[in-house]
Design brief:
about 425 residues, mainly alpha, 18 helices, about 70% helix, about 0% strand, globular
Length: about 425
């Protein structure tokens, strides 16, 4: 390939990255603003939670009638990366956006990363559709399509959380590092920063967290770090398997898909009413922020796990990551009552470590922790993410994710069928 072709090819991919980043970042900005609005509306009008079953029925009907090709959500992106077949339909973006907003408006417990990642993936993959109309020399092959999916995931994650480095690494790591090309790696960072600065351009703010006190690392506190990290990994395992359990149960017991979120919504409304609190619905950001300064009750992380697993398993839309942040931060906060480490540090460690275990992405989560909380806590964050990664088992929140490397070999060696079938 001569210099001119290399230059043209580079310019083409830079153009794709910039356009994908701008479009994905703008979509995330609109989503974040809309999500804040529906959340505030629900908090000031709690009566609307009684309409959750009807919202679920609409979401179920919408995907049953028009979304059969995109209902797999994030798993579709992972499957298309591993075995490219068809261009991801663009309708994935508006459908998941609308469905997630409905879920949060009426009181479902869900996150936001799934929505942003799916919007980014759908936007990025449209370039493969455009290239199919181009001359043969300009068409994108399967390898290029994989790069597009990486760009979409990177842009969506970076823009919705305000963490460009972690977003780029997450896209690469969740798709299994060793199969990633150098070109994809460079482009992933480029699109992540474009998407991140696009959200900044729209003046949409992200939640900030602080770890004011980070003690000096010592052998005396290392056992406590290990204990906490293993607890975070087990919490990640519980979250993943709970979500899968409810999904299988609803699919097995309710044949007509639109009725699953309707029935699930009825159960959730009754549970919310009987408990008399909205702490465990929605994103749970106020609970996360509070966990950095006030010890949580030991059951908070369990209830959020149950509410989120049930909501998503029933067929409502959203994501898992922000609820994972809630689970980890509140668990770390509760552990501060027995573990002699600062409460904010334990909450921050749990914040990213549970996410690490549930998504098999310890590198991205370590970087995310440092982006959010500062590099001073990096050693603690890194140890927690790696140990939680190994302690969380071989099943994560994404059915279609391929787990390889040291963790895969470890669990293949000691695998027990009765546990894997849980």
């Amino acid at each position: 390939m001569n210099l001119k072709k290399i230059l043209l090819l580079s310019l083409k991919w830079i153009f794709i990255c910039v356009l994908t980043g701008i479009l994905s970042g703008s979509a995330s900005a609109f989503f974040l603003v809309s999500l804040e609005w529906v959340t505030q509306f629900r908090e000031h009008n709690n009566w609307i939670i009684w309409l959750l079953p009807m919202g679920g029925l609409y979401i179920g009907w919408l995907y049953h009638q028009y979304g059969a090709t995109v209902v797999k959500g994030n798993n579709l992106l992972l499957e298309e990366y591993e075995n490219p077949q068809k261009t991801i339909p663009f309708k994935m973006a508006p459908m998941v956006l609308a469905s997630t907003l409905i879920t949060h408006l009426f009181g479902g417990s869900a996150g936001r990363e799934g929505t942003a990642v799916q919007m980014g993936g759908a936007i990025a993959d449209q370039f493969s559709r455009l290239s199919s109309r181009a001359q043969s020399r300009d068409k994108l092959d399967n390898s290029d399509r994989k790069t597009l999916i990486i760009l979409g995931i990177s842009a969506g994650f970076a823009s919705v959380f305000g963490t460009p480095l972690a977003g780029a690494l997450f896209a690469l790591e969740v798709l299994y590092f060793s199969k990633i090309s150098l070109k994809s790696s460079v482009l992933s960072f480029l699109v992540a920063y474009v998407a991140y600065f696009t959200v900044e351009f729209w003046q949409v703010k992200h939640t900030h967290y602080q770890i004011p006190v980070v003690p000096e690392m010592s052998l005396q506190i290392m056992p406590w770090i290990i204990v906490a990290s293993i607890a975070f990994g087990l919490a990640a395992m519980l979250f993943s398997r709970t979500t899968h359990f409810w999904g299988r149960l609803f699919a097995k017991t309710i044949e007509y898909p639109p009725l699953r979120p309707f029935v699930g919504g009825l159960v959730l409304v009754i549970a919310i009413y009987l408990m008399g609190t909205t702490k465990y619905i929605g994103l749970g950001v106020p609970g996360i922020v509070d966990s950095f300064s006030n010890p949580n009750q030991s059951h908070d992380f369990l209830l959020k796990t149950l509410f989120t697993g049930f909501t998503l398993g029933a067929g409502f839309k959203g994501g898992e990551v922000t609820p994972l942040f809630f689970v980890g931060a509140t668990l770390g906060s509760a552990l501060s009552l027995v573990i002699p480490l600062p409460i904010a540090l334990l909450a921050g460690m749990g914040f990213v470590a549970v996410f690490s275990g549930a998504t098999h992405t310890p590198i991205a989560c370590t970087v995310m922790g440092m982006e959010l909380f500062g590099i001073e806590s990096g050693v603690y964050i890194g140890i927690a993410c790696v140990l939680a990664y190994f302690a969380s088992g071989s099943i994560g929140i994404y059915h279609s994710q391929i787990v390889k490397g040291a963790k895969y070999r470890f669990y293949q060696r000691f695998k027990r069928k009765d546990l894997e079938d849980f």
